Amino acid sequence: MPNLLEMPPEIMQEIVDFVGCPEIFTLRNVCHDLRNFVDNIKPNFRLQKLGWTISSETMTIDCEQNDKKYSIKYDKSDQDQFFKMMEPILKFQKSTLTIFGTTDQSPIPGFYDKMKRILESRPSPLKVFELSMRCAYQYQIQSILSTLEPGTLERIWLDGRHFESLKFHKIVGLEQWKSANTLHVHTFTVHAPLTDFGNFKRVFALFGSVDWEDLDSLREIFLSNPETKRLFYIYHWGLNGWDEWRESLGPAINEDDGEPEWRFRYPNSDRTLRIAEFYDRIVFESLD
User: Fold this and answer.
1) Tens digit of pLDDT for each residue in 208-239?
2) Are 131 and 153 in contact (CB under 8 A)?
3) For the chain, N or C: smaller number of CB within 10 Å?
4) Long-range contacts made by residues 55-60, C-beta under 8 angstroms, separation at least 24?
């Protein structure tokens, strides 16, 4: 009976395509010849989800393939083994990931520089539908977001810790940011002009404070794009220029209500912009 290396290449290809992600790496670790074979054929893992979780003691690679979930855990001190596994996974992934995510709120020095170099070394940018990051700093987001394929990224989901401040000035100019449709920011307090989010169709975020001029500019962005249906939930700790904002809007359609609302007709369109004011948020919504 022939051993694996004596089988025809097309049979070996079928075997590699059939087994799951961890089994491919088991094959790679059998011997140098199998490792070279796997690396030469560059198998497409066809992962649906991929990410990593870093805790105080461990580093875990999490992936999902054909609706089966896999986790590969390493000691936090064993970064070399972690990257030996993660690098070929990232390089061999060809199909679009439904979710590419990370949970890492105490990043290791140099970790994201290395991850960025790996992603940039791919033959083409990694295709991701949703980027989901539970992190602590802007540079973590920038390192990953800047390497992704802009044309496939639809959603950006950011989680922080204890509503700490997060600036966006190094992110908002990225093509990946500009081309995404939906942004969720949770347990971060955003410090950035509202106009930096005007490219999105859906935004849910908490802002440290909001200036009335920013809100007025956002209203103009909505009204100048009648063909784009949008929904923004702007949570805030305070609004600067409350009286000026109310004056710019004019009388509310329910002035005596504790939650006033305004409606504005889009130019040359049957669509309406609804602005609603609540104690902790302002909602901008395009209505048909």
Assistant:
1) 989 999 999 999 999 999 999 999 999 999 99
2) yes
3) N
4) 56/106
